[in-house]
Design goal:
Distance between the termini: 50 Å
Order of helices and strands: HHHEHHEE
Strand content: 5-15%
Largest sheet: 3 strands, antiparallel
Helix content: 40-55%
Shape: elongated
Keywords: Coiled coil, Transcription
Protein name: HTH HARE-type domain-containing protein
InterPro entries: Asxl_HARE-HTH
Number of helices: 5
Organism: Methylobacterium nonmethylotrophicum
Number of strands: 3
């Protein structure tokens, strides 16, 4: 059984959307891991609370301080732990999101230039989705409209807002 060209392209688009979603999830989890490692601060012992005693009772010795006063017992030699090569932490998730946002806006600019006419945000979104690009949220058209609207502000903008969710290229 062979797929038609349209079916193959549809599957590729779906896979690209899934890949983009996975990339975002991976970047988010890597950020959480990095934050957790930074907060753990390896090498520092956790601060122990003092032992609570009843009033009038002498304070109990700290078990950790007693360990230093006793002679050390020899432990069996452990096998050496392999040293893992140092891996630089991944770029923050925000950097990946900014790159994705710039790619999305550049693609929207290409779509408008190729069409040669102003387009509604829904039309632009259809063509962006056909290229495998994604936007977070429940309403990607509204998210795209917001991004284009923000970039249409100011004199040096590439986009020009012509109406409700209708954009063209600035001349």
């Amino acid at each position: 059984m062979f797929l038609s060209e349209a079916e193959t392209e549809a599957r590729l688009d779906d896979l690209r959307r899934q890949r983009a979603a996975l990339d975002r999830a991976i970047a988010e989890h890597e950020l959480y891991l990095d934050l957790g490692r930074r907060l753990a601060r390896p090498g520092q012992a956790p601060v122990a609370e003092p032992a609570r005693t009843a009033p009038g009772e002498p304070p109990r010795p700290d078990p950790a301080s007693r360990a230093w006063s006793e002679p050390p017992q020899e432990e069996p030699a452990a096998e050496p732990v392999p040293v893992r090569p140092r891996v630089d932490p991944p770029a923050p998730a925000g950097a990946a999101a900014r790159r994705e946002g710039r790619r999305l806006i550049a693609a929207a600019e290409e779509i408008l230039a190729g069409a040669g006419r102003p387009m509604h945000a829904a039309e632009i979104w259809e063509r962006l989705a056909a290229r495998g690009l994604t936007l977070p949220g429940h309403d990607p058209v509204a998210a795209l409209n917001t991004r284009l609207w923000k970039r249409a502000q100011g004199s040096g903008s590439v986009f020009r807002r012509l109406g409700d969710a209708v954009y063209g290229l600035a001349s």
